[in-house]
Write a structure and sequence with these properties.
Helix content is 48%, strand content 15%. The chain is α/β, with parallel strands linked by helices and 631 residues long.
Length: 631
């Protein structure tokens, strides 16, 4: 009670940190009239002036206000975007080596330009770390216009570059790249024999986008460079034939901890099968020292069949087993499970079994990013992991207020008895929203679930787009147009999608699509530009009309088809709606048959729900239930 009284009188610790930025922001705003009068050349000249002052002994903090004012003016001219005051505060949080939590749609990409420019002035290089190649490319081109305008060099590290191109990109003032590429370059550099063959220079400062996804969800994921080991593909195929012959009493599965083990009866059954197949000599136990390889192969085959599901944990594409990232729903091309599990999955799916590898070099993201002398990050949801950031990385999380208050209405969860009841309720809500032309974003936890829902919508005759690892290439186009009147978009985990859902549609994307279509039809550039100008005006008018229709209908409606293990991913999905003060709504639908309810369900809650007795298609909503589910 005393704590609540103190907070109401003096504000929280976070409020006091944010309030402390008011004076520096006022200082930057006071410089705006003076900087807006500078010519482009004079504004570019500020970079050389700042570098000179740093060489004479001034610190980055001394020139922060002027550098931020310079970037704001450059962004107005190069991008037509002006940083809000809250974005300046976000930039200060990043420059001070902390994590800025900013809600979805608050312009984190633009915020990063402030500390990136300031820290790049020292000439030691700044890394901006994103979650995929598409965002690294997009941001380096988009925000690169600001840096190049101010005379800085910009590089981007993506999958297909050779060593010379990588070296040139790392030598730039600002380098965009994914966590995977930067990590693998670090490992490859440590395996080289000559210093001049290394592509990276010493780490200086990194800003990690979607910092919770990279530094928490994937923190312990090892990046491994491996070389081929001996071929044992035949043994995997033979071990794979054993598992379908086992019965339920032959193994014990713990879904919560993702483990599966053979029971005593299971060991006997496996030994009988192996003896029949000629893999185990008579009188020898499966646990005999000389049978360790056979035991390992059987164990991995058991895990592949009983713990890993196709279209949930992995997909089969072009005759290969491709892992799906459980946090972002994206394909992880080139990544393989270790210790023979990937080969066991290949045997299960009857595709070509690739040779096993032995580890030559390895590092986790946790250890990689702790090597940066200065580290900061930004995301829409970091407070739920604030204690982990503080403990592991010594990083403080600062919540930046929104530019405009959030107007989204978050409804209580609805709980149904069966999956069928839940699906019917979701389809009914989608039909209602389509009638009033309200766009919908429907979040699912796996490809399998998104395709089941897609089938239900097709049956109901509802047109929709599906965004999952299968249609990963059209990601930006699908997300960019998810705010058009009456559109329905089904998406697996929205974590780190990085593209704004704008009400009425994204004009830049529509113009880019029109330009690409015209390029195939009109060869003459002057004629093409004239036609593009005409189409752009039409598109702008159309988007304005559509935006008004969507606002009147209630904004973007976000539906969660079940709760995710990580509450933060639910919050990220919710945060797609209600950006920059837009209207919006969100609701989660659950059923007693959901995996999460089955595995983690609080029995008291489930017992209470069962006792209530629910008829078919009847929903249960109560704020106590919400609280219990959240816990």
């Amino acid at each position: 009670m005393l704590g609540a009284l103190a907070r109401s009188l003096f504000g929280t610790a976070n409020d006091r940190i944010v309030k402390g930025f008011d004076k520096p922001v006022a200082k930057i705003n006071a410089l705006e009239p003076e900087f807006s009068k500078l010519s482009d050349e004079e504004l570019r000249g500020k970079t050389a002036e700042f570098r000179e002052r740093l060489a004479k002994g001034e610190t980055l903090d001394n020139i922060q206000a002027e550098a931020f004012a310079t970037v704001r003016e450059a962004a107005k001219r190069a991008l037509g975007q002006r940083h809000f005051d809250v974005q300046l505060k976000g930039g200060m949080v990043l420059h001070s080596g902390k994590i800025a939590e900013m809600k979805t749609g608050e312009g984190k990409t633009l915020v990063a330009t402030l500390p990136v420019y300031l820290n790049a002035l020292e000439g030691k290089g700044v890394h901006v770390v994103t979650v995929n190649d598409y965002l690294a490319r997009r941001d380096s081109e988009w925000m690169g216009r600001v840096y190049r305008f101010l005379g800085l060099t910009v590089g981007v590290i993506v999958h297909e570059l050779d060593d010379e191109q990588r070296k040139a990109a790392y030598a730039c003032d600002v380098t965009y790249g994914t966590n995977n590429e930067i990590g693998f370059d670090y490992l490859r550099d440590n395996m080289k024999y000559r210093q001049d063959a290394m592509v990276q220079r010493p780490f200086n400062y990194a800003i990690v986008d979607e910092v919770d996804s990279i530094l928490i969800d994937e923190a312990r994921t090892p990046l491994i460079i491996s070389g081929p080991a001996e071929d044992s593909s035949e043994l995997y195929r033979r071990a794979d034939t054993v598992i379908p012959r086992l019965k339920a009493e032959h193994f014990e599965k713990d879904e919560k901890n993702r483990t599966v083990v053979l029971t005593d009866a299971g060991v006997e059954a496996v030994e009988d099968i192996l003896r029949g197949d000629g893999l185990l000599p008579e009188g020898i136990s499966l646990y005999a020292p000389n049978m360790v390889s056979v035991l390992h192969h059987v164990t991995q085959a058991l895990r592949a069949h009983k713990l890993f599901s196709r279209d949930v944990d992995y997909i089969v594409k072009d005759g290969q087993v491709v892992i799906i990232d459980e946090f972002t729903g994206r394909m992880m091309a080139g990544r393989r499970y270790s210790e023979g599990l990937h080969q066991a999955l290949e045997a299960k799916e009857q595709v070509e079994i690739q040779r096993e590898n032995q580890t030559l070099a390895s590092i986790t993201f946790q250890n990689l990013f702790r090597m940066y002398p200065k580290l900061s990050g930004m995301t829409g949801t970091a407070l739920t992991e604030a204690s982990e950031f503080a403990e592991i990385y010594k990083l403080e999380v600062v919540e930046i207020p929104t530019n405009v208050p959030v107007a989204r209405k978050d409804a209580d969860d609805e709980i149904y008895r069966t999956l069928g009841d839940k699906t019917r309720a979701i389809v009914k809500l989608i039909e209602e929203c389509r009638t009033r032309q309200q766009p919908m974003l429907v979040g699912t936890v796996s490809i399998e679930k998104s395709e089941e829902l897609s089938a239900a919508l097709k049956k109901a005759g509802i047109p929709h787009n599906v965004l999952n690892a299968r249609f990963h290439d059209q990601e930006a186009q699908i997300v960019a147009q998810a705010g058009r009147p009456g559109s329905v978009t089904i998406a697996t985990n929205m974590a780190g999608r990085g593209t704004d859902i704008q009400l009425g549609g994204n004009i830049d994307m529509l113009v880019a699509q029109a330009d690409a279509e015209l390029a195939t039809k009109i060869a003459d550039e002057t004629q093409r530009n004239a036609e593009l100008g005409r189409i752009t005006q039409e598109l702008k008018a159309q988007v304005e009309r559509d935006r008004e229709i969507v606002r009147t209908a209630g904004g973007l409606y976000v539906v969660g088809t079940e709760r995710h293990e990580s509450r933060r991913i639910d919050n990220q999905l919710r945060g797609r709606s209600g950006r920059q003060g837009d209207p919006g709504a969100s609701k989660f639908f659950l059923s007693l048959e959901d995996d999460l309810m089955r595995i983690f369900g609080n029995n008291k809650v489930l017992d209470w729900v069962q006792k209530k007795g629910m008829a078919d298609d009847e929903a249960l909503t109560h704020r106590w239930l919400n609280k219990a589910l959240e816990t």
